Amino acid sequence: MPTQRQHWSLIAYDVRSPRRLQRLHRFLRTQAYALQESVFAWYGTEQAKLQLQARMLDFIDTTEDDLRGYRMRAGTEIQLWGKSPFTEGVFDTGYPPHQCHLIDPELREPDEDHGQKSEGEAA
Fold this sequence. Notes:
Residues 101-123 are annotated as: Disordered. This is CRISPR-associated endoribonuclease Cas2. Its EC number is 3.1.-.-. The chain has one domain (7-101): Alpha-Beta Plaits, CATH 3.30.70. It is α+β, with helices and mostly antiparallel strands. The longest helix has 12 residues, at 18-29. It has 2 helices and 6 strands, in the order βαββαβββ. Helices cover 20% and strands 26% of the residues.
């Protein structure tokens, strides 16, 4: 039997019930890397993904909740701006491919304030 290729997937969800939300979140923390509160990076085979999907569906109400998976192509890198979800100084070969973009607020240009004017400026 040939070995199945493994790939990264992003899993994102919007769960309406706090109880279902907490249960799904706790489960996914044991299966994948948390990137944000409701976004995870998961690595495995297609068969394992189907098993994971079946388990995740046990935690949600498909008439109210939204659960999505996005397969990442080989070589795709997750871009991180701001605080990284990964432990600083720890090298883990299991982390999804990513690149951190550290943004120093002191180095931002004044016109990068998203078009907002300060209180003293005229509209």
